[in-house]
């Protein structure tokens, strides 16, 4: 005979079963979708010098402010430069800044956060005191201040965004290390008289790499947006070097008669940002399934 308890638990069991069946599919779809958007942008950006496109920096006043057409698929800007060529050239710069800054921030955060969380005491107190000072400022405001100090340019912007994102990576890594320190396998390794650095290299760091890869994907999306904002404000990548931010700034005075100048670089920023977040979601789901 079916009891009330049986009928009450069955929907929950069915829901849990369906949820477990959906999660692998969700992880696969988000990973594939993220890569399907991101990889073509990266490939086109890297291969753009080999494509039969006009120079992204050479002006052609005779074709200024031409709308999208067969000869110029995304139109031309105020001095006749091809918007498609400039958008693809800007992809190289913006992706270089975003990915490099994210990798450097996560790598630095893993080193500092591991030392703070594992060594503890005075080392932890000093490192986290400095980290909390930087965390008291919004990332964009801190990046603006650092660019004002370092100056404009590709590597200066990378350095500014790295320093702005580093404190969050430090805190996240430290929290994972503190959690790992209390795990039974760490106690067993200590009882076996394992050296501190062996514990770090063998047990701590490998268990934090995968989650920090997910974090790096999200940081890359944020870094691209921050770089675009800095370049839009005239504080980032200096023209004539194209980046998505200064391309949008170039088209700002021509939003009515030349809407395409700003629109297509803006669409590129949105698509790449979405793809990186989809990639991060897919990786996170994969990791949770592996656990």
TrEMBL record:
Annotated ranges, domain ABC transmembrane type-1: 91-280
The record, for InterPro entries, names:
BP-dependent_transpt_permease, MetI-like, MetI-like_sf
Q: Name one GO biological process term.
A: transmembrane transport
UniProt membrane topology term: Multi-pass membrane protein
Q: Which residue spans traverse the membrane?
A: 25-51, 93-119, 140-164, 213-238, 258-279
SUPFAM superfamilies in alphabetical order:
MetI-like
State whether keyword Glycosyltransferase applies.
no
Q: Where in the cell is it found?
A: Cell membrane
Q: What is its main location?
A: membrane
Q: Which CDD domains match?
A: TM_PBP2 (cd06261)
What keywords sit in the KW lines?
Cell membrane, Membrane, Transmembrane, Transmembrane helix, Transport
**Gene Ontology cellular component list:** plasma membrane
Q: Family membership, please give it.
A: Belongs to the binding-protein-dependent transport system permease family.
PANTHER family reported in the protein's UniProt record: D,D-DIPEPTIDE TRANSPORT SYSTEM PERMEASE PROTEIN DDPC-RELATED, OLIGOPEPTIDE TRANSPORT SYSTEM PERMEASE PROTEIN APPC
State the protein's name: Peptide/nickel transport system permease protein
Where does this protein come from, organism-wise?
Thermasporomyces composti
């Amino acid at each position: 005979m079916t009891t009330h308890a049986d009928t009450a638990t069955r929907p929950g069991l069915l829901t849990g079963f369906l949820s477990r069946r959906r999660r692998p599919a969700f992880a696969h779809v988000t990973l594939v979708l993220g890569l399907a958007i991101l990889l073509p942008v990266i490939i086109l950006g890297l291969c753009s010098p080999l494509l039969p496109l006009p120079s992204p920096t050479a002006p052609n006043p005779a074709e200024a402010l031409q709308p999208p057409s067969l000869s110029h698929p995304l139109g031309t800007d105020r001095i006749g430069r091809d918007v498609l060529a400039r958008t693809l050239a800007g992809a190289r710069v913006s992706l270089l800044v975003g990915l490099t800054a994210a990798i450097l921030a996560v790598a630095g955060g893993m080193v500092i956060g591991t030392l703070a969380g594992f060594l503890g005491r005075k080392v932890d107190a000093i490192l986290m005191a400095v980290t909390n000072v930087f965390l008291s400022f919004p990332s964009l405001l801190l990046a603006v201040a650092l660019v004002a100090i370092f100056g404009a340019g590709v590597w200066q912007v990378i350095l500014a965004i790295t320093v702005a994102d580093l404190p969050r990576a430090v805190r996240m890594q430290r929290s994972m290390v503190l959690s790992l320190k209390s795990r039974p396998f760490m106690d067993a390794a200590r009882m076996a008289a394992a050296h501190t650095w062996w514990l770090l290299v063998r047990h701590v760091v490998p268990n934090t790499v995968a989650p920090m890869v997910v974090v790096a994907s999200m940081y890359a999306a944020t870094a691209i947006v921050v770089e675009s904002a800095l370049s839009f404000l005239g504080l980032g990548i200096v023209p004539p070097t194209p980046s998505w931010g200064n391309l949008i700034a170039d088209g700002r005075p021509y939003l009515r008669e030349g809407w395409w100048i700003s629109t297509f670089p803006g669409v590129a920023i949105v698509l790449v940002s979405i793809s990186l977040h989809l990639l991060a979601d897919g990786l996170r789901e994969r990791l949770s399934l592996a656990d």
